[in-house]
Write a structure and sequence with these properties.
single chain; about 290 residues; mainly alpha; two-stranded antiparallel ribbon
Length: about 290
């Protein structure tokens, strides 16, 4: 699931069939049908844009211009996976433009990735206060609460985010994940109801079917490359698919298998996708669960 900047785009890359090592024999049945993506590479225009912004920042700019320049550079750094540099620029952007809600939103995301939840809430609360209808802040606060195990608050925020666009399948899926932690049966019922608003030709319907038990993992894997949209690359599709497959394996208690899927999501290098951002947290927590067993 992509965040809001259309000027941060991906490159179309091919995939190749392969298996996943270090799996028990019974686990290999599905995983031998994996599609392995080449890691996504940054577009050349990212480098050009960064060079231009560095030149702009050497000029005599007013506070508003400086704020926007740092914000744009921070968004580019973020898309390239350079989180520390991005965080520094978002902080500078706020210094010059204290009412820049998008910068607070990005900071909230990054602090969630670091599992610094108090800082994440402070940033995301600021984004919502400045822009009550911000298109992503409720999602990002809901995700922070999900990882901080504040599940009631997470469900409330994710429901509010879903209400802004009931047809978005990823809003539906994140609400399911949060609800499933405390009310698994109710979560499935709500997922089936919410899925009715998703467009019939959206590939994410396969994810819904997978979670509802209406589609096997093997069947899902065989369809991962079908019907790519014009604005979608194979690598992006696989980043999403691997992440949600990992979450499904967590639900089943298959921690080692979940870890493999999260590792595959990370190999795509689709840094700006929600699924890539949080795959590392999921990997760490799956490893902890496996160790505890």
């Amino acid at each position: 699931m992509r965040f809001q900047h259309a000027w941060v785009a991906g490159i179309l890359l091919s995939g190749l069939l392969g298996g996943c090592a270090m799996q028990p024999a019974n686990d290999n049945v599905a995983m031998t049908h994996l599609v392995i993506a080449e890691p996504e590479r940054a577009e050349f225009r990212y480098e050009i844009e960064l060079a231009k912004l560095n030149q702009v920042l050497q000029q005599d700019l007013d506070a508003e211009q400086l704020g926007m320049a740092y914000y744009r550079r921070g968004a580019l750094y973020d898309a390239l996976g350079l989180r520390t540099l991005a965080r520094m620029d978002f902080t500078r952007a706020i210094d010059y433009q204290p009412r820049l809600a998008d910068a607070y939103n990005f900071l909230g995301i990054q602090y969630t990735e670091l599992q610094e939840f108090d800082y994440a809430y402070e940033a995301l609360d600021s984004a919502i206060e400045l822009e009550p209808q911000h298109p992503y802040a409720y999602l990002n606060r809901g995700i922070a609460e999900y990882y901080d195990r504040r599940l009631k608050f997470s469900v409330d925020d994710l429901q509010q985010h879903l209400a802004l666009d009931p047809s978005d399948p990823y809003r539906v899926l994140w609400l399911f994940l949060a609800q499933h932690r405390t009310q698994p049966q109710q979560a499935k019922t709500t997922l089936r109801e919410n899925a009715e608003a998703i467009a019939a030709d959206d590939w994410a319907n396969d994810l819904v079917a997978l979670y509802l038990g209406d589609m096997s993992e093997r069947h899902f894997l065989s369809r991962m490359t079908d019907n790519l949209r014009a604005n979608e690359t194979l690598t992006e599709r696989l980043c999403e698919a691997y992440f949600y497959l990992g979450k499904q394996q967590q639900i089943k208690g298959n921690w080692a298998r979940a870890m493999n899927y999260f590792k595959l999501a990370l190999t795509t290098n689709v840094y700006e996708f929600v699924e890539h951002r949080y795959a590392r947290i999921e990997l760490e927590r799956s490893r902890e669960q496996l160790a505890s067993q």
